[in-house]
Amino acid sequence: MAREAVKETIPLMTPYKMGQLELSHRVVLAPLTRCRSYGNVPQPHAAVYYSQRATKGGLLISEATDVSPTAQGYPETPGIWTQEQVEAWKPIVDAVHRKGGVFVCQIWHVGRVSNNGFQPDGQAPISSTDKQISPDPESGMVYSKPRRLRTGEIPGIVDDFRRAARNAIEAGFDGVEVHGAHGYLLEQFMKDGTNDRDDEYGGSLENRCRFAVEVIDAVVREVGAHRVGVRLSPFSDFVECADSVPMTLADYMVRQLNMHEGLLYCHMVEPRIANVIGRRYIPHRLLPFRKAFNGTFIAAGGYDRDEGNKVVADGYTDLVAYGRLFISNPDLPRRFELGASLNNYDRSTFITQDPIVGYTDYPFLEDDHKHDPTINA
Ligand SMILES: Cc1cc2nc3c(=O)[nH]c(=O)nc-3n(C[C@H](O)[C@H](O)[C@H](O)COP(=O)(O)O)c2cc1C
To answer: End-to-end CA distance of the chain, in Å?
Structure first.
């Protein structure tokens, strides 16, 4: 009797329609700052890096990209406010498109997560507040005392995001992701731990979210909701930016996102991974927002193959973004498909300026075979 081949369905490897875009699987490249864009200009080695991680119908989110000269807080991050930067992104986006990938540009402003050395004319970084972040002995980062933005300056910053989005589309990106996470400028306004303003951008929840909402509105008006994703991390306390009622904050923001019909996606970061009886444990606290949001939902933070398959199968999320595992495994979707082993990542090369080491030199599965002396035995 002929036996039917039973093919295991791998939830992460099933197709998904995101708006007008046909994705062939659910494994997303998370936005990852790599600090290799000399002089804020994306470099040819980024074309190698991103195209290594591109697959037909796979979604890639770019590293956080500065919207203006005051947006920078880390060395050699790419920008998208000058024509030179737009031109430099084009071949990188082309390289991803040639492999059939979908490529979204994450646009950011770090706000007070910066120091005078990164700022034009050595000025103070700008923020919602003039409260300074304490130095971080672990990373060696020192943050300067920020300058509180005057109310009348805020429309100019909103416009920087609008122009960055326009430029990203001109560079060929399929969309933009507004970086509303991890303690950067949008969150400095949103969270009650960092917003101590008394104008219409401070105080009530609605006022604190006003700046983020205006940025998202402006970007949507400029390039269309179908090209705009938003990243949020309500539970994060990174760089001393925390909210006392994160569930309420996130609920409010998701309702604001729902006002834009056909928004590309909502991307949320899980709370920090806990250790329960010696095992990694993802808290899975995003469910209320996944339920409340009317479109595609992306979850990120601590996922591996098993957890990713589980949350897609359960309907907890539509897509899963992978950060560190995608740094060290350029062919991560293929490895997940095959259930292959994974390369370990090397933290020490996450954020360096080397154009190759820790960037484009992680091996593909085929490389393992090339070096495997038993393969032709
Ligand atoms: C080296 C590095 C750079 C990162 N850069 C960004 C970034 O530019 N924008 C962002 O939203 N998140 C950034 N993140 C957070 C990741 O997108 C992701 O949420 C995080 O790594 C958790 O996912 P993982 O457990 O799959 O790595 C970065 C993380 C790492 C390790």
So the answer is: 34
